[in-house]
Hints:
14 helices; mainly alpha; Leucine-rich Repeat Variant; globular; single chain; 2 domains
Amino acid sequence: MQYEQVRARLEELADPSQLEGQARFGIDVSHSLGIGMPALRQLAREAGRDHDLAGLLWSSGIREARILAALLDDPASVTEDQMEAWAGEFSSWEVVDTCCCNLFDRTIHAYSKAVEWSRREEEFVKRAGFSLMAGLAVHDKKASDRDFEDFFAAIEREACDGRNFVKKAVNWALRQIGKRNLELRARAIEVAERLGAMDCRAAKWVASDALKELRNPQLETRLGARRQR
């Protein structure tokens, strides 16, 4: 599909009545058409992988076009410069998470950027670092447990950042890493317990919420059964 065709489809799908509901979920709708994710995923399947088209869609600045760009870009063609350029324009958690968990986590720069971005001060760039960690924990089936050691260190270092979109991503990363296997679950619980002992409200919230899931006996049973397969 050509860029003009995709833009025309986006205009056809536009539904301004959805904007108020999206805004209630903390989504930046200042440049939004009101299109939901199911329709965008379907359009991405129709368009197919296209790195050049993704770049044009991102440059439009439209929320749905940027989400679509992340869904149809080719991870093998994504450069570190592109990742930095897109990250520098992040303004909504939804776009951050779509980029990180559908595109960036499949690139060769994913692990280094996760750690690097976790140190950044900008709220949505820092969120991107932890969103990348969560995405890698879910999608990189070949990763070893040691690949996540730097992530645990970043989680402990940044857990006191009380900004909503950061602390939720820190929590998300910790939970997803802990759900990979029994060994990482035990490690994640240790980290969460240390966070819970900190004199820091944000860290205590991250710990409490994560431990509810990590200590669930059903999770332990499921991970144990996975090991035996």
